[in-house]
Amino acid sequence: LVWLLVLSLAWLGPALGGEDEDEEVIEEEEKEKKEDEVLSDEIKEEDNVLVLHEHNFARALSEHQLLLVEFYAPWCGHCQRLAPAFAQAAAELRNESSPARLAKVDATTQTALATEFGITSYPTLKLFRDGNRTHPVAYTGRMDSRGIVRWMQRRAGPSATLLQDTDTIAAFIDSQDLVVVGFFKDLKGEAAQAFFEMAAEMMDMTFGVAEAPELFQAYGLSADTVCLFKKFDERQTNFPVDPARGLDTAELTRLLRAHSLQLVMEFTNETSNEIFAAKIPHHMLLFLNKSSPEQLSLQDGFRAAAGGFRGEVRWPHGRDMEGGFGTPQPQCAPFPAQVLFVVVDVTGHGADVLPFFGMTAADAPTLRLVKMQNNRKYQMEQDNFSDSAIRTFIQAVLDGKVKPHLLSAEPPEDWDTRPVKVLVGKTFEQVAFDETKNVFVKFYAPWCPHCQAMEAAWEELAERYKDREDIVIAEMDSTANELENITIHGYPTLHYFPAGPGRKMIEYKSSRDVETFSKFLENGGTLPEEPPVSEVRGQPPCPGLSPGPAG
């Protein structure tokens, strides 16, 4: 029996060892196969999206006239959310036989490409045209399938339709609620070329061009002019091209954005992008409950006040052009648009933004004016919904005669007994600017994942310094508290307020770990000279609340 056992082991041992060797050989072969696939310049596809890497990138550029490349990271949440829309856009472009194709590069593994094209965050989209590798164009469209398709279509074909006769232009104007037509006497001139370039960037508008003299006459024009045609409010708004300055595309873009909106907008899921894309510096908001007929009637005075705040009129060369363009009577566009009037239904889409204003539905009807640059909000001492009262209030804010209305939560009873002191708007000044203390404050949003990730480190830091009389570790929820002279644009934001006179403030921009925090504090609000530490790639601070109702 013993000998049989020995012989069995002798026979089976090599066989078992052989299986291990076979598995190792298979694994090695699979690894080599994968390496060969990566080294090949073959271009594979996933959901109509070209999969690119260092060895097939050049081939893709040579084979495709227009190639929009997404540089992504597999772990990036923004990239994961974009993926379905990107694939859908790729399919649509392919189905219409467009010369434009979409591709993607995993920038976490293809580091050479990421370095070559300066990829520092995810996703980053760049357009490569005619095989040009050295000057890709940054993607500026919306991050959804429709936005991507339209952006690529504009670059694959003419950005504006040539309109050659009265029937064609009339049909073009009638085809949509809003169109833009550039009237140029020379379509090869500088002004017309600038117009074409601008049209390529403005994905959400439809553009046409005309040069026939009879079309100038038909629409009451005598010189190069860009016209906005709408089926609401003013039917035709003219933007004359200044002969001396030429066509200022940035200025014209702002004007088109502003005047493409209705005089009074309703804040909805569909209109929110339009409202903020217009970049109008002030928003006047009427909060109301649309189920109440009495509150709905307040819109009349609100609308009557809106007309006076489209902007300050500035005519070319200082001449009055009113009535100079024939019939239909157009409005010559003012510059710049100053105040956008928006109605917010507190029981509809607007319910989600009420916390941004520190309000509940029960506060309606009420008025607020928001300065978009810094999110400052202004409130009447007592709501008055007449058009004259609204105009007076807005002008007072514009003239700097009204102080902003600042949100502040109530301080918790134990706000100063825990290692991390809890600040609110009402208590911030007395704590942060205490001349006997060095105060390190974290401004955060409860929903921000980066804030949540550093919470343990902040608590540990506070525990380390809890017995130091001269150092205070604090935090403030910036979604519920506002400060007059400090605007928080992203989360988390860390500010250090050193002891002593002068109300100094130092922003902390280094690594978010206990040891670096401690080194910063021990050095009096500075760090030893070191190479700058950037954010984790693809994870910049969470953005602050979007200006105005989009909050």
Automatic annotation (TrEMBL):
PROSITE patterns referenced in this protein's UniProt entry, alphabetically: THIOREDOXIN_1, THIOREDOXIN_2
GO CC annotations, alphabetized: endoplasmic reticulum lumen
Residue ranges of the region described as Disordered: 20-39, 522-551
Domain Thioredoxin span(s) in chain numbering: 7-157, 397-526
Catalytic activity entry: Catalyzes the rearrangement of -S-S- bonds in proteins
InterPro entries: Thioredoxin-like_sf (IPR036249), Thioredoxin_CS (IPR017937), Thioredoxin_domain (IPR013766)
Compositionally biased intervals (Acidic residues): 20-30
Subcellular compartments: Endoplasmic reticulum lumen
Enzyme Commission (EC) number: 5.3.4.1
EC class of the enzyme, as a word: isomerase
Compositional bias of kind Pro residues: 540-551
Keywords: Chaperone, Disulfide bond, Endoplasmic reticulum, Isomerase, Redox-active center, Repeat, Signal
One GO MF term attached to the UniProt entry: protein disulfide isomerase activity
Xref: Gene3D superfamilies: Glutaredoxin
GO biological process, alphabetically ordered: protein folding; response to endoplasmic reticulum stress
Span of the signal peptide: 1-17
Family of this protein: Belongs to the protein disulfide isomerase family.
This protein's name: protein disulfide-isomerase
Classification lineage: Eukaryota, Metazoa, Chordata, Craniata, Vertebrata
Gene symbol of the encoding locus: Pdia2
